[in-house]
Amino acid sequence: MSAPVPVLCGVELGGTRCVCLLGTGPDHILAQASLPTGADPAVTIERMAAVLKDWRSAHGPIAALGVASFGPLDLDTTSATYGFITSTPKPGWRRTDVLGPLSRACPVPVGFDTDVNGAALAEGRWGAARGCHSYAYVTVGTGIGVGLVVGGRPARGFSHPELGHIRVVRRAGDGWKGACSFHGDCVEGLASAVAIERRTGRCAAELPPDDPAWELVAHALGQLLHTLVLATAPQRILLGGGVMNGQAHLFDRLRRELQQSLNHYIEVPEVGAQIADCVRPPGLRDLGRSARCAGRRGGRARSRMARSLTAEPARHGASCATVSTAVQWNCRHEIIQGAGNPATGRRSRRSPAPQRLAGHPQ
């Protein structure tokens, strides 16, 4: 008789919403809750902690908890602020302890990583990066982040990469100061949904494909792809997030920008004849879908919250929460199977050492 499949719990904190999930795998979701991220982190985290406590009471033992969050994050398990959001540009969320309250609400083996690393791991396990050992997941939404997997593991040094904030070569004649509160005209300051709206006065979803602003967005993102290709030689670069989801024309623009920027310096199929397979959308559906105007976000969040704790779990492949589901599941997978932090092998001081769980789906 095979061992029972463990129940896992995942939490994703995004710039505009947070999602909690419970289940045994991406095709078996027991419960889901979604709520606006909000401006008060204490209130948001308390609400998520309450969901986790309710699920433990309603569904029984939970084998492991994984938290994937926007950042920057402190991922050093020896640090006094391990599990904190650190110097984020999101108002009100700087120096916020995310992992502490959630792990106390659900005291089980725990994993913690960035939302984009979670999404990247998801694509490697179930999505468009299956079979790849080195690849990147780029999300272009409220901000810009890069989940970078090298040799099958998220890239990690003293912390996680923050490639959305690299400086880029500006398009000739473009003197706009940019929207990033830290760097002005970094990639995020030039090509995120916030940057697009500040530059044009309209949200990305309202801009037609022939709007001149897209040339500037594609140029900045093309510079990011140039850096990724030269730094880690990824087998695949997947681009998702609200801006990309709503503007399919950006993919051809980005491929051209990348090839022009490289100028034949790198001559491999991935950036040549096979570039359409290398630079492409994710294989898992994105919860964010297309970028929406700021005034509409609250209604969508409230609608999701109203149907959050559903008795009949939606099938992962057809659910609007596909990528969100996968984000959390892969962090859980890595922690359980790897007996610690997926990049370092170290375990959190807030939880016992994770154990390999028999029967866990691969």
Structure explained in plain terms:
It is a single chain. The protein has 362 residues and is α/β, with parallel strands linked by helices. It has 2 domains: 8-115 and 296-338, ATPase, nucleotide binding domain (Nucleotidyltransferase, domain 5, 2-Layer Sandwich); 128-280, ATPase, nucleotide binding domain (Nucleotidyltransferase, domain 5). Helix content is 33%, strand content 17%. It has 11 helices and 12 strands. It has a 5-stranded mixed β-sheet with strand order 3-2-1-4-7, sandwiched between helices. It has a 5-stranded mixed β-sheet with strand order 10-9-8-11-12, with helices on both faces. It has a two-stranded antiparallel ribbon with strand order 5-6. Strand 8 and strand 9 (144-150) form a beta hairpin. Helix 1 (41-59) packs parallel to helix 2, helix 3 (115-125) packs across helix 11 and helix 6 packs across helix 8. It is globular, with a radius of gyration of 20 Å. The model is unreliable at 294-362 (pLDDT under 50).
Main sheet makeup: 5 strands, mixed
Order of neighbouring strands in the sheet with most strands = 3-2-1-4-7
Which architecture of the largest domain per CATH?
2-Layer Sandwich
CATH topology of the largest domain: Nucleotidyltransferase, domain 5
Instruction: Give the class from helix and strand content and strand pairing.
Output: alpha/beta
CATH homologous superfamily placement of the largest domain: ATPase, nucleotide binding domain
Poorly predicted residue ranges: 294-362
Domain unit count: 2
**Helix-residue proportion:** 25-40%
* Number of helical regions: 11
**Order of SSEs:** EEEHEEEHEHEEEHHHEHHHEHH
Arithmetic mean of pLDDT: 81
Percent strand equals 15-25%
* CATH level 1 name of the largest domain: Alpha Beta
Distance between the termini: 18 Å
Tertiary shape:
globular
User: Radius of gyration, Cα only, in angstroms?
Assistant: 20 Å
> How many beta-strand runs?
12
* Quaternary structure state of the chains depicted: single chain
